[in-house]
Amino acid sequence: MSVKCLAAVFVGAELPLEIQEFPVPEIGPENILVKMNMAAVCGTDAHNWYNPKAPNPIIWGHENIGQVASLGSKVSKDILGEKLKEGDRILFHSAPCGHCYNCVMGLRCTNNIHYGNSHVDPSSETMLRGGFGQYLLLDPNPAVIKVPDDMTTERALMSVIGNHTTMSGLRKINGPDPGDTVVIQGCGPIGMGALIQSKLRGAAHVIMIGSPSHRLGLAKELGADETIDLSEFPTPESRIEKVRDLTGRGPDMVIEASGAKTSVHEGFQMVRYGGKYLVIGLILPVNVEMDPSLIASKDLTVAGVVGSKVENIIRSMRLMQSRIDVPIERMITHQYPLSNVNEALQSHVDLSAMVPVVNHSLI
């Protein structure tokens, strides 16, 4: 009789995720079977919960940390050359194929599976490809990073929540520069990652715009110099005026991390002449109000980013270990057992949690 495990399955828009039973798969010589420790609920999951076009059935959970349950016979090291053994905690990502156009051009691979995001045919070898399952099967030759023994599970998980994506965007736009003033639109996980990474790059003054107030309070703990509460400044005009009051000519850089319809229009007006504007939060199709003439008339540098490559996960984890001295683990505000996965999703939707996680050690 095969060993069974449980996983939460998305079966359709606005329907509760279903806890279903699956056989734990056998592994091939180049696979790794992961026993999940924690999987964060991401904004993408919350959006897809209400998206009638979201693929299903699927096991979500793409911000993950787990431990090696079983190693294929040809797998002995992680991508940094560290020896792997059963029980080691790992971060993981699908490895680039190396031969598609994007790989050749140094971009994100278009052929690999995105664990917790890519649809899996229920008739395939296994559906256990997302972190909302007790086990997860990695494809052959996965990109695996061993977590240092002296790093907490929560801190390691933060390497793949907000921080690696914002790092990717900041490296792309080459900002902020040391001493810059930065405005961040949005105080969710991406906004917090932008705050942490901007400070690491030498930003002297970071202003966070968002709500609710408890998130802005956490932003102050993580290094924000000023906060602008949407409840006190409810209109775009009031927020633009407040930023001008705080910065004079305007910030050197504005980072869009909210996904709000007015954000780009606001940001273009806030940022100083010759400044930079980075879009991270607006990744789903939406009609937004904006004046594109400001890109030219203000001589702006504008860039966007979605996701990240493995190199930024490596860099992010190294920074967690050596450079980030604020209590970033406090972003994980709620932990739920797998059986309460729908409560975890709801806590993200209603903003009561900053980062809710499914903790597979809880019952």
Number of domains: 2
Rg value = 21 Å
Percent of residues in helices comes to 25-40%
Structural class: alpha/beta
Report the principal-axis shape: globular
Gap from first CA to last CA:
25 Å
Count of DSSP strands: 15
Number of helices: 10
CATH class of the largest domain: Alpha Beta
Assign the CATH superfamily of the largest domain: Medium-chain alcohol dehydrogenases, catalytic domain
Strand proportion, as a percent range, falls in: 15-25%
Largest sheet: 7 strands, mixed
The CATH architecture term of the largest domain is Alpha-Beta Complex
Provide the succession of SSEs. Answer: EEEHEEHEEHEHEHEHEHEHEHEHE
CATH topology of the largest domain: Quinone Oxidoreductase, Chain A, domain 1
Global mean pLDDT: 94
Which key phrases capture this entry?
363 residues; alpha/beta; Quinone Oxidoreductase, Chain A, domain 1; Rossmann fold; 10 helices; 22% strand
Characterise the protein shown here.
The chain has 363 residues and is α/β, with parallel strands linked by helices. It folds into two domains: 4-147 and 327-359, Quinone Oxidoreductase, Chain A, domain 1; 162-304, Rossmann fold (3-Layer(aba) Sandwich), CATH 3.40.50.720. It is built from ten helices and 15 strands. The strands form three sheets. Strands 3, 4, 5, 6, 7, 14 and 15 form a seven-stranded mixed beta sheet that branches. Strands 10-9-8-11-12-13 form a six-stranded parallel beta sheet, sandwiched between helices. Helix 3 packs across helix 4 (189-200). It is globular. The mean pLDDT is 94.
